[in-house]
Amino acid sequence: MRNPLILKLEQFTAFSAEDKQSLRELSASKVRSLSAKEDVIREGDKPHDVNLILEGWACRYKILEDGRRAISAFMVPGDLCDVRMFILKQMDHSIGSLTPLIVAQIPSERLLELADSSTRICRALWWNSLVEEAIAREWASNIGQRDVLARLAHLFCEMFFRLQSVGLADHDTISWPLTQSQLGEAVGASTVHVNRSIQELRDRNLVELSGRKLHILNLDGLKDLAMFSASYLHRDRDGQSLDANDG
Amino acid sequence: MRNPLILKLEQFTAFSAEDKQSLRELSASKVRSLSAKEDVIREGDKPHDVNLILEGWACRYKILEDGRRAISAFMVPGDLCDVRMFILKQMDHSIGSLTPLIVAQIPSERLLELADSSTRICRALWWNSLVEEAIAREWASNIGQRDVLARLAHLFCEMFFRLQSVGLADHDTISWPLTQSQLGEAVGASTVHVNRSIQELRDRNLVELSGRKLHILNLDGLKDLAMFSASYLHRDRDGQSLDANDG
DNA sequence: CGGTCATTTGAAATCGTTCAAAAGGAGTGG
DNA sequence: CCACTCCTTTTGAACGATTTCAAATGACCG
Fold first, then answer.
1. Which residues does chain A have within 8 Å of residue B72's beta carbon, measured at their own beta carbons?
2. Is the pLDDT of residue B84 over 90?
């Protein structure tokens, strides 16, 4: 199996064989399996390891005082859960599994050592945090300015590109483990309305969603409806100047 | 005048006199004045300087294809506009002034040098980016899960605490330069609805908003309504262990 | 085959938008 | 100080989007 972290970071710069080897060793750290609907980390925790998702989906969430759950991000293979913990005293939100999950628990010292030892890897990790921030901002403006139909279309586009970049898109199809109610917690809409909006996307022949698979029938149409522009994902090898040349 | 960047970063760790001096010199870099409604940086730009806001308010925004403007963040004195540009090839959104603005244009090399020379400052800057990311996530869940009344209440709370931390709150009053239509672009609501929601907040004796001033009459009530918890602002000196002891 | 959870449907109630217009500042030039 | 203008705030009313509640249907698991 290709390593999803390496695949993702290579969107930024080309690694040397040595870089890749170090990153692969990192992912071979203590591997942990979780089932669906468990917490990887809980709000208030001060974790010592960084969790790298190898398989499955997770989400960042908060429980509001009135009991509802707000999902603020989805995380898929290649995503690092909590790099921020080098600095922040405690988690201000929780991370929970949405499917059975396989994560590598990377001791934070090892990650720091690696970043210190290779400028290329250090920059790539930095790039990665900045892209995560950009995704968070895009999420906010997605939810703030679009109607629910376009929000869903936008989310479908984003997850398609993100999974594609870690080798998890099969042509125009990705796995889609989310229930409509989880989708509602993410886009800020009721389950009923999510359901009706998905039907509308289906009627317009943009997507097909069944059997935990999302099949994108008309990517351009979906992007138009969502007003989606992929620039915030920064997949354009911003760090080319750092490229290693021994691949 | 106290330096807003120092005040802000000191929420994380206590600086030495020397640290403070370096930071002060940074803010004395080329100072630029802008009037309201200008762009500080435009989407697609590749800036070479980092802009530090010394006075005034700015916002991050994108223009959507249908012409509407989505505001995804407000920026106030002490905020650094675009640290991300060390890594990313180009801006994926614009930054525009909302009031007349005074910014220090810090050459990126100087900021990097400073970060290299002091672990304390380096960590404080890192902390700052992570808090910005947390603010972006909170923004998303604010807009996704709350009704417009609570969204406004939440934004009022956030800006109050942020301005307070850079010494710009006068007891329970902060300056509030935003028009209701700008507020609408930020919280994802029509101007009319923003107006009616503000009236409701007024009727409930939570805030008073007039003459470009926001007067908070009942902070606890406002926080309850907003389901506001300040933990995401990480004002609790997470980096205490790095504290200098010569203040 | 029953039980549980996810999806779908209908209808009423609520929230928020849109359009159009009036009222209220704040600044400018005479 | 007034008249004029521009911009923001406020109001009313109709319309549209979305939620809520309640119930039916479908899918999967043991």
1. 137, 140-141, 144
2. no
- Cα B245 to Cα B15: distance, rounded to the nearest angstrom: 8
pLDDT band for A123, please (50, 70, 90 cuts). Answer: confident
Q: What predicted TM-score, i.e. pTM, was given to this entire model?
A: 0.93
**Residue A76 C-beta-side C-alpha neighbours within 13 Å:** 21
Between residues 73 and 92 of chain B, which touch chain A (CB distance below 8 Å)? 73, 84, 86-90, 92
Q: Which nucleotides of C are covered by protein (CB under 7 A)?
A: 5-11, 15-20, 26
| Chain D bases near protein CB atoms (7 A cut-off) | 7-13, 17-22, 28
Name which of B245, B151, B241 is nearest B198 in CA terms: B151
Cα–Cα distances in Å, from B143 out to A70, A228, B95, B139? Answer: 10, 19, 20, 6
- Reported confidence tier of residue A119, pLDDT bands at 50, 70, 90: confident
Do residues B210 and B221 make contact, with C-beta atoms less than 8 angstroms apart?
no
Strand runs (DSSP E) across B39-116, as ranges?
Answer: 39-41, 49-55, 58-63, 69-75, 94-97, 101-107
**Which stretches of chain B are assigned E, i.e. beta strand?**
31-34, 39-41, 49-55, 58-63, 69-75, 94-97, 101-107, 173-175, 207-210, 213-216
A106 contacts: CB under 8 Å, gap ≥ 6: A26, A27, A29, A49, A50, A51, A52
Half-sphere exposure of B99 (CA within 13 A, CB side): 18
**β pairing state of B173-175 and B101-107:** unpaired
Q: Which helix (H) or strand (E) holds B126?
A: helix B119-145
A residues 155-184 near B, CB within 8 Å? none
